[in-house]
Specification:
337 residues; Uridine Diphospho-n-acetylenolpyruvylglucosamine Reductase, domain 3; five-stranded antiparallel sheet; Uridine Diphospho-n-acetylenolpyruvylglucosamine Reductase, domain 1; 3 domains; 26% helix; alpha+beta; Uridine Diphospho-n-acetylenolpyruvylglucosamine Reductase, domain 2
Length: 337
């Protein structure tokens, strides 16, 4: 077990914030994970885990041990004529796994193309995009308890998935390390193109009867046109969740803003956070090295050498202004460290 001391974390977070880890270790197998966690427990040292680093905002140096998840592996564990069960190790890159599935014509996650992060992070917040959520294809996951070292299989029901939510963000937050995730994909895919601009993008591509490969390409093109590449501009994708309001609250807003976009969901009405932020004139805002992206109001960016607290303070200003204008409290989707 070899730690790197005072290790810069700029390359381990997609915001490219300059902060340091007191101790850092990359783990490639379960044995290394157990050894590291046991050491930390014995020495009473805090442990922090990073996968793709695409859902964190570093506001200070990180004390204790930072563990970089590099568990790799993709294997088919069961299949029939209709479905295939695929087990993905938690350190695998999410988008690369989507491309693997699309290449094999296994349907179900093509709408989730180009979402940053790792497989292990995907169930924590039940990632979703363009009318599809992880829970739609989720079968189970295997995790290890970080105190008792108990191994457990979590089923779909046990994960308690909600909108960008799960048991791992609520009562079990910080208690488990996800080792692998099993998804049930279909061998007879039916394309889901009724959300967002997918239909329009397919028309631009002159495709009338799309395959899942076409849908994936369309989603990649849409996301690339709206979202900055973290390799070029530091960001963590969507910084805020889309809020869900009551039907009565929505009707009040609609009377004031007839053009307000919305999606009816089981527990109310979902309003795009980007619209709320843009309506308050934050889109394209820039101050020093940080701001709100010019093409997507949901994305806060580090243009060069911004501090994490600069971006955190900006997010607070946005939350306050949206609250005052619409009586809606935006929630951050990004974890603040």
């Amino acid at each position: 077990m070899q730690f790197e001391l005072n290790k810069p974390l700029k390359d381990f977070n997609t915001f490219h914030i300059e902060a340091h880890a007191e101790k850092l270790i990359c783990i490639e197998d379960e044995a290394s994970l157990l050894e590291t966690v046991a050491f930390a427990k014995k020495e009473k040292i805090n442990t922090h885990f990073i996968g793709g680093g695409s859902n964190i905002l570093l506001t200070k140096n990180v004390q204790g041990i930072v563990v970089i998840n590099q568990l790799k592996g993709i294997k088919i564990i069961q299949e029939n004529e209709e479905f295939v069960m695929v087990n993905f190790s938690s350190g695998e890159n999410w988008h690369e796994c989507v491309l693997w599935a699309v290449e094999h014509n296994y349907g179900g996650i093509e709408n989730l193309s180009l979402i940053p992060g790792t497989i292990g992070a995907s169930p924590i917040q039940n990632i979703g995009a363009y009318g599809v959520e992880l829970k739609d294809v989720f079968h189970s996951l295997e995790a290890i308890h970080l105190t008792s070292f108990e191994k457990k299989i979590f089923t779909l029901e046990e994960c308690q998935f909600g909108y960008r939510d799960s048991i791992f963000k609520q009562q079990e937050k910080g208690n488990w390390f996800i080792l692998n995730v099993t998804l049930q994909l279909t061998k007879n895919p039916v394309c889901n193109i009724n959300y967002g601009n997918i239909k329009d993008e397919l028309l631009k591509m002159n495709i009338e009867y799309p395959s899942i490969q076409d849908v994936s390409k369309a989603v990649i093109q849409i996301r690339s046109s709206k979202l900055p590449n973290p390799a070029e501009i530091g960001n963590a994708g969507s910084f805020f969740k889309n809020p869900i309001v009551s039907h009565s609250h929505f009707e009040e807003l609609k009377s004031l803003y007839p053009e307000i976009p919305f999606f009816t969901v089981s527990n109310g009405v979902k309003i795009p956070a980007a619209w709320l932020i843009e309506k308050n004139n934050w889109k394209g805002f820039k101050e020093g090295d940080y701001g709100v992206h010019k093409n997507q109001a949901l994305v806060l960016v580090n243009y060069n050498n911004a501090k994490g607290n600069d971006i955190l303070n900006l997010s607070t200003q946005i939350i306050t202004s949206v609250q005052q204008a619409f009586n809606i409290t935006l929630e951050r989707e990004v974890n603040i460290w």
